[in-house]
């Protein structure tokens, strides 16, 4: 299939077949990035690399991961197209597996698969299914994220009203001293939320 092209403001990326195409959740995350020059950013689940590129163009040094070999190849291509190779490193692996346990970041980003679904579902797609309840993958992420944050680091996390965002907010409040809904938008079948959490306990 012919690759598609996705746009966010003046940034465009090629999206290869089999890679999650940026949508409203991706664009919300991009719009809520507040990057100080010199920040160190970790993005889990980079897909085609759009969010990582937006962060790098704002002045961050970025490490971006994805478990999909196709996504990693796609992201590396887009990073090269945008001349961001010196600011973005793409690594392959599940969640934090590609990250050295001694690495920490000022900001960690994730737009995880957050909809309920299992491999037995005919329409199953790992790009959108976060587990039976929709938040199992997010919980695995939260189990590890604090150790990769600087002492005053922060987290941006996308969630959907279809998953039980209140459950995830309670989990965040057990891990961080400051948690808030940074942005929220209603779409025709769901509400999307951006949680911001700061100051790990």
Shape: globular
Q: What would CATH call the class? A: Alpha Beta
Quote the beta fraction: 25-35%
Helix content: 10-25%
State the secondary-structure class: alpha/beta
CATH superfamily: Vaccinia Virus protein VP39
Please characterize this protein's 3D structure:
With 201 residues, this protein is α/β, with parallel strands linked by helices. The protein has a single domain (4-200), classed as Rossmann fold (3-Layer(aba) Sandwich), CATH 3.40.50.150. 25% of the residues lie in helices and 35% in strands. The protein has five helices and eleven strands, in the order ββαβαβαββββαβαββ. It has helices at 24-31, 50-57, 69-81, 136-145, 165-175, and strands spanning 4-8, 11-15, 40-44, 61-66, 88-92, 105-110, 115-116, 129-131, 149-160, 176-186, 191-200. A seven-stranded mixed beta sheet has the order 5-4-3-6-9-11-10, sandwiched between helices. It has a two-stranded antiparallel sheet with strand order 1-2. The longest helix has 13 residues, at 69-81. The termini are far apart. The model has no long low-confidence stretch (mean pLDDT 91).
Kindly list the characteristics that best describe this protein:
globular; 5 helices; alpha/beta; Rossmann fold; seven-stranded mixed beta sheet; two-stranded antiparallel ribbon; 201 residues
Question: Short summary of the structure?
Answer:
This protein has 201 residues and is α/β, with parallel strands linked by helices. It contains five helices and eleven strands, in the order E-E-H-E-H-E-H-E-E-E-E-H-E-H-E-E.
């Amino acid at each position: 299939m012919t690759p598609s092209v996705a746009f966010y403001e003046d940034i465009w990326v090629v999206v290869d077949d089999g890679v999650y195409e940026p949508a409203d959740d991706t664009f919300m995350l991009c719009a809520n990035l507040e990057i100080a020059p010199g920040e160190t950013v970790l993005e889990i689940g980079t897909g085609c690399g759009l969010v990582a590129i937006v962060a790098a163009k704002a002045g961050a040094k970025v490490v971006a991961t994805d478990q999909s070999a196709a996504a990693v190849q796609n992201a590396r291509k887009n990073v090269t197209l945008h001349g961001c190779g010196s600011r973005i490193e793409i690594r392959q692996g599940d969640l934090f597996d590609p990250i050295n346990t001694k690495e920490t970041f000022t900001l960690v980003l994730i737009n995880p698969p957050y909809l309920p679904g299992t491999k037995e579902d005919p329409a199953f797609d790992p790009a959108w299914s976060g587990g039976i309840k929709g938040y199992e993958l997010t919980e695995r992420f939260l189990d590890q994220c604090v150790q990769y944050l600087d002492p005053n680091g922060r987290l941006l996390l996308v969630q959907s009203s279809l998953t039980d965002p209140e459950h995830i907010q309670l989990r965040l409040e057990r891990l961080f001293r400051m948690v808030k809904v940074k942005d929220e938008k209603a779409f025709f079948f769901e509400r999307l939320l951006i949680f911001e959490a700061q100051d790990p306990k």
